[in-house]
Amino acid sequence: MAFPFSLVIALIPLGYVVGVIAKRKRDISEKWEGHPDIVRISGANGFGMTSRGRGQIRGNGILVLTRDQVVFEQIIPATTTQIPLQVISDISVVHSHLGRTRGVPLLKITFLNEDGIEDSGAWWVKDLEVWKEDLARAISH
Q1: Is 111 exposed, middle or buried (0-12, 13-18, 19+ CB in 10 A)?
Q2: Which residues are CB-neighbours of 125 under 8 A, at least 6 positions away?
Q3: Are 90 and 110 in contact (CB under 8 A)?
Q4: Per-residue pLDDT tens for 87-134?
Q5: N or C: which end of the chain has fewer CB within 10 A?
Q6: What is the largest CA-CA distance in the chain?
Q7: Domain containing 113: what range?
Q8: C-alpha dist (Å) from residue 58 to 31, 47, 75, 138
C-alpha cells in the first residue's frame, strides 16, 4: 500500500511546528540554565493575564522565580511575562482563571502592572504549595 501524498503534505507543517517548539524550549532552557538568581524553576501551564482578556492563548512554558521577579516564558506563542516581586500584592490558589479551568488548583499572582493597574495571572504548576511558600518568602525579603 502506497503512502498517501496528501498525508505527506499534511505532515510537513506539523514537522515545522514541532521543530519550532523544540527550538523555543531549547532557547528558554539555555537562557535560564545556571542563572545565579534562580530560586525556583519549573514547567507550567499559563492561564493568561487578566489585562489581556479571554482571547489570549493559554499555553505551556517555564515559570521562573528569581530573587527579584517572576518570569513566565511561554513556548507558543513565544511570549515573556515579567512580574517584579515588589509589585506583587497577593498570592492565592484558585480553580479557574478568565473562565478557564483544568480541574486542578492554580497559582494566582495579583500585582500592579507597568501602568499601575491591578492585574493577575494564573499558572498550573506541579509543586503549588512549594511555589506559594517560595514566593511568599521571596516577597518578604
Answers
A1: buried
A2: 42, 43, 44, 63, 107, 131
A3: yes
A4: 999 999 999 897 777 789 999 999 999 999 999 999 999 999 999 999
A5: N
A6: 67
A7: 5-140
A8: 22, 5, 10, 26
Q: Residue 52 class from Cβ within 10 Å (0-12 exposed, 13-18 middle, 19+ buried)?
A: middle
**For 13-32, what is each residue's pLDDT tens digit?**
766 667 777 887 778 778 88
Between CA 57 and CA 48 the distance in angstroms is 7
Query: CB under 8 Å to 130, separation ≥6 — which residues?
Result: 40
How many structural domains is the chain composed of? 1
Contact between 49 and 97 (Cβ < 8 Å): no
Which grid cell sits at 133? Answer: 511558600
Whether the full predicted model's pTM is greater than 0.85, yes or no, is no
